Amino acid sequence: MGGHDRARAEAGVPPLTWDSRLAASARTYAEEMARTGRFAHADQPHGPMREGENLWTGTRGAYRYDEMIGHWIAERRDFVNGVTPAFSRTGKWQDVSHYTQIVWRNTTRVGCAMTSNKRDDFLVCRYSPSGNVVGERTL
């Protein structure tokens, strides 16, 4: 939570609350990715039940948790507070979408989980309400 809360404080938004339901959802999906080796966002319904999602994978044991989260937060360098999806200096929303989900002003809850297979670590964080809503600003 520390990395999330620091990034949010720097952006001027309140800290997130840990949500055990989101953490359980994140764990289930992290385990699926580790089992299948498929690194991709989960299929989710659109609408108010949709959970925001940040994913990370890397060589097993090579990265600390704060480094994993740090990769997402480092996207801040390309962030501009435009209307979604026009919120990246590069013109590619994907270049900042992990960071924007972390600091999304309307997101209030988070749950994360990490699991591994023989080769890789898989980190999943789930957020509610979901961020990166088209037509809205991050902050």
From TrEMBL:
Q: Name one GO cellular component term.
A: extracellular region
Give the matching Pfam families: CAP
Source domain of life is Bacteria
Q: Where is the SCP domain?
A: 4-135
Q: Which PANTHER family match?
A: CYSTEINE-RICH SECRETORY PROTEIN-RELATED (PTHR10334)
Name of this protein: Cysteine-rich secretory protein family protein
- Organism of origin: Sphingomonas jeddahensis
